[in-house]
Amino acid sequence: MTSTDSFHSILRRLCLGIVSLCFVPIGVAQSSNGISITLTGDSIVNRRLSVFDDPASAHLFEAIRSTDVSFTNFETTIHNDSDPGAEESGGAYQSSPTWIPSELKWAGFNLFSTANNHAFDFGLAGMRSTLKALDDAGLTHAGTGENLAMARGPAYLDTKRGRVALIACASTLTAGSAAGEQRPDVIGRPGVNPLRFQTLYTVDKTSFDALEAVSKNLLLGDHGPAPKGQNPILLFGGLTFQAGDVAAVHTTPNKNDLEDLVAAVRNAHRQAEWVIVSSHTHESGAGGAETPPEFLITAAHAAIDAGADVFVAHGPHILRGIEIYKGKPIFYSLANFIFENETMQFQPAESYDSMSLPWNATVADYFDARSANDTRGFPVQKAIWESVVAQLSFDHDHRLQSVKLIPISLGYMEPRSERGRPRLASASQSKSTVEVVARLSAAFGTKVILSDGVGTLLLP
User: Fold this and answer.
1) pLDDT tens, position by position, 369-420
2) CATH architecture of the domain covering 31-196+258-341+381-458
3) Which of 29, 113, 128, 196 is 20 to 30 A away from residue 18, measured at CA?
4) Which residues of 339-365 are buried (b: 16+ CB within 10 A; e: fewer)?
5) For residue 84, is pLDDT > 60?
6) Sign of CA dihedral 363, 368, 369, 371
7) Distance linking the first and last C-alpha atoms of the chain
8) How far from 146 is each of 131, 196, 217, CA to CA, in Å?
9) Domain map (residue ranges) of the chain
10) Dihedral (CA of 36, 42, 48, 53) sign
């Protein structure tokens, strides 16, 4: 061997040694290190995020980019402005420019639910163009599809820490937007993965007898089969009543929807390392808007029992409590992440008609009328504009290691052109927001404390 050959041999060994220090050896599973996840609530977004470089905005997005998975509920549509609005919308008709997916990708998001009450604001064409825009941006999404199987099926995100499955559903739906089953003789109906439910109203016997008498006299109601071991029920005016000693409202998930949700989770559990389940749920429990409905609690527990690692809900636009169920986190509502609910460029005729506005009214006229010039509705509800971003970590054995809650502000009482975008909350708001989460979570036995400006769950 010549001296030159010896030199090159030594150089080659040195280079290989340097390379081996920089890369994990092939065959070592990255998922053995666990995973970090960011969860946010509703994103109603139609403006740019990347133009803001103030510290409160920049540090928030740095935190979102720091985790392996970052999730949001995409509660808007991306469509051609020539697409007509649906006959019924989930509120104000939501529409976003075609560049919005790239903005969310810039912000660090890589996992999206599209199952919500705004998915069909611009009909089937709007749903399809939204999915195409997310696909074109290379973003993983679940919750809507060409038939029920596609809407209900998991979507998969590949990360360095393992494959992540997302199953997304919605209990709050507009008429005709629920996806339908495929059959040998009829194709399935495109739409949203539904989590439907039944409501049973328990009233005292005097009230029940009065309802029964009215239904018989006016032929408005009918008796239905009583649940096993319970009193007879009365179907009246589209509602279901039962006599009882204590007035109450009980909700249960639709049997088929729950069974299919469980089956989807079990499938995903075998196909991926990590499983996240999302539900868009406006409905409230007996305790009011801050409490989740019974059917959602039942569905969340069933999803965890079937193998889900995380259950995250959104929809009421306010915060709800957090439960640790069998070692897994359930977020009953993460409220809003982006709430640009008043800066869409266009609204269909139905919006103007709902406010009794003339044919030549502008979109600004519509939003002025809807909020009575910021004196009612969303603009004056402080809880709408204060939320948290949840960040959690699991170890390689799927054990929950930490849950941090980063308080954010969406600009309560700022002008319409400014409010709605997220930024880190002030110290005083951080304290009050974490106190809200702590109060609501205490009902589930979950303890939340404020530490260094963020909420921290005290895990059992």
Assistant:
1) 999 999 999 999 999 999 999 999 999 999 999 999 999 999 999 999 999 9
2) 4-Layer Sandwich (3.60)
3) 29
4) bbbbbbeebbeebbeeeebeeebebee
5) yes
6) positive
7) 65
8) 11, 19, 45
9) 31-196+258-341+381-458, 198-249
10) negative
Calpha distance 405→387 (Å, rounded): 9
Task: Identify the H or E element spanning 222.
Answer: strand 221-224
State the average pLDDT for the chain: 91
**Least confident span in 24-38, 195-209, 390-404:** 24-38
Pairing verdict, β 328-331 and 310-314: parallel
Strands 336-339 and 35-44 turn out to be: parallel
Cα–Cα dist 225/277, whole Å? 33
Contact 33, 396 (CB under 8 A): yes
Backbone angles phi, psi at 85, to 5 degrees: -70, 150
Q: Which residues fall within 8 angstroms of residue 303, CB to CB, at 6 or more apart?
A: 167, 261, 262, 265, 277, 311
pTM: 0.90
| Alpha carbons 406 and 392: distance in angstroms, whole number | 11
Distances (CA, A) of 382 to 153, 376, 429: 36, 11, 11
Q: Bridge-partner residues for 141, per DSSP?
A: 112
Tokens of 236: 């009246």
Q: How much is the CA Rg of the chain, to the nearest whole Å?
A: 25
| Per-residue pLDDT tens over the stretch 330-340 | 999 999 999 99
Angle 198-301-178 from CA coordinates, rounded to 5°: 45
Q: Which residue has the tokens 């527990």?
A: 301
Q: Where are the alpha helices (DSSP H) in 222-338?
A: 255-271, 294-306
Return the bridge partners of 142, or none: 113
CA-wise closest residue to 421 among 43, 55, 167: 43
